[in-house]
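Action item from last week, closing it out:
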Amino acid sequence: MPFLEFVAGSISGAVGIAVGHPLDTVKVRLQAKSVYKGIFDCVTKTYLNEGFHGFFKGMSFPVLTTGLVNSIVFGSYSNALDYLSQSDRRLTSHRKQVSSLQVFTAGCFSGMVQVLVCAPIDLVKVRLQGQTTAKRYRRPIHCVAVILQQEGVRGLYRGGAALALRDVPCYGLYFLPYELIRKALTETGEEPGTFAILMAGGVAGVVTWACATPMDVVKARLQMSGAGGQQYSGVLHCMRVSLKEEGVRVFFKGLLLNSVRAFPVNAFYRFEIKMKLLRSYNQP
């Protein structure tokens, strides 16, 4: 039932995005701009100037594409893991046969695939989140059209190098605690339960974002540099300028929000949830 699996994944992914998007908007604004004194100041100014709607800017693109993205990312992870371990993921003993290095490598591969697919989606999301008025971009499609007109196809991948430096190693890191926690909370020979899946996904998300936040700051600043933000020539230039102007603390902007947001989003996101729904549907 591939279609049922796709729909279940889309719904779970959309719920995760809806739960975490307001926090993500505040995080992006704190990272990309220096006009806010802190989280409370950003929340207050966003609400007073833009209303409740301001926290959900840029959400439609990720929501509409979450099923496709999750299928590609977790499909590439599973297939890479199968290839590296020379096993069949349909066998119940599959996950016992893989090493931590194989899990990390498969996760890095899925991160690379994710960057290729999601870089334009993430760029549009950040551009819409970062603007406090609709003077530049009206909607996601209009944002894409303006970027293509002003910057060409290459403009859709602005910040792509920073995104790759963030996601490729961090996706590898993500699957390590995820596999360990999922196994620890699952009885031998049994399928992982809902609690094990939620806890494994949530904890792994928090651990991963703690490591990813410095490059997440660089990515947001590079993505906004083409939309009225400060101009940077690349990843290293952005890091040097940011460090010189704001100190080491700049690379940890949004860390608290990333950690708070990561648990519910990653708990809902997990591919194994939709697989569990599919298995229960097929049971007599």
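Closing note: The two ends are 15 Å apart (CA to CA).
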